[in-house]
Automatic annotation (TrEMBL):
Keywords: Isomerase, Lyase. It is an enzyme of class 4 (lyase). The keyword ATP-binding does not apply. Pfam families: ECH_1 (PF00378). Its EC number is 4.2.1.17. Coiled coil: none annotated. Signal peptide: none annotated. It comes from the Archaea. This is Enoyl-CoA hydratase. GO terms for molecular function: enoyl-CoA hydratase activity; isomerase activity. It comes from Haloferax mediterranei (strain ATCC 33500 / DSM 1411 / JCM 8866 / NBRC 14739 / NCIMB 2177 / R-4).
Amino acid sequence: MIRTTDDGDLRVVTIDRPGRRNALRPTDLEALGDTVEATDAPVVLLRGSGAAFCAGADLDSVASLDSDADLPDPEAFARLGQRVANTIEASDSVVVAGIDGAARGGGVELALACDVRVATSRATLGEPGVRLGLFGAWGGTVRLPRIVGEGHALEFSLSGRVVDADEALRMGLVSRIVDDPREVAASMADNDHQSLRIIKKRLRDRGPDDEQFEDEAAGFAELHRANVDDIAASREE
C-alpha cells in the first residue's frame, strides 16, 4: 500500500506494509511508480512505515513469479522495478529517501534512484540477494558502482552483509545521518522550485543505460529460474 500526505510544498510518500517490513509486491511497485509520476510537488520524501524503510521485493511474490499467472515473469518483474526506479530518478521532483530502519535489496535500489539519501541512526542497509541466488535487479548493478565506486559496490553486493548508518555514510550510500529525514526534505522544499528542477536535471543528465538494464533483468531471470525452490524455502525460515 502506498500512502501520500502533503505538507506545504513537500509530498511524503509512504510505503505502508509494516507487517511485511514494507516489502513490495508487483501491485505495490506499480502504485509507487504511478504516485511518483503523478506528483507535482517540488520535493518528495520517500519513507517506510514502522520499523523499516523497505525490505525490497516481497519474497512470496518472488517465489511465485514463474508459477502464478497473475504475476509477471522474472524478467518482467525486474523490468517493473527498473521502471519504477527510473521514474524516481527522472521525476521533475527532488526525491529524498528517508531511511529509518531496514533497507534491503530492492529497498536499497529504490533509495539509490533517489536524488538524496539520508539515514537515521537506526538505518541498516544490505543486498542479501546473493544469499538467495539472486541479485539486485531494479537498477542496482548500474547505480550502486556509480554512487559508491566499484570497490565498495562489489564488496557490498558479493558479501551480502548489512551495514549500519555510520558505514553507509563512509561508503557514500547515504549523504547524512539525521534525526528526522522529513526536516531535510522540508528544508529543500523551501528553496526556489525552478532552481531545484534545473539543478537536478543538469546533475542527472547522463547517457542511456538501456543495455545495462536489459542485461541486469535477463541475469535476474536466469538466476531466479535456477534458484526458485531455495527462494520459496527461505520464506519459511
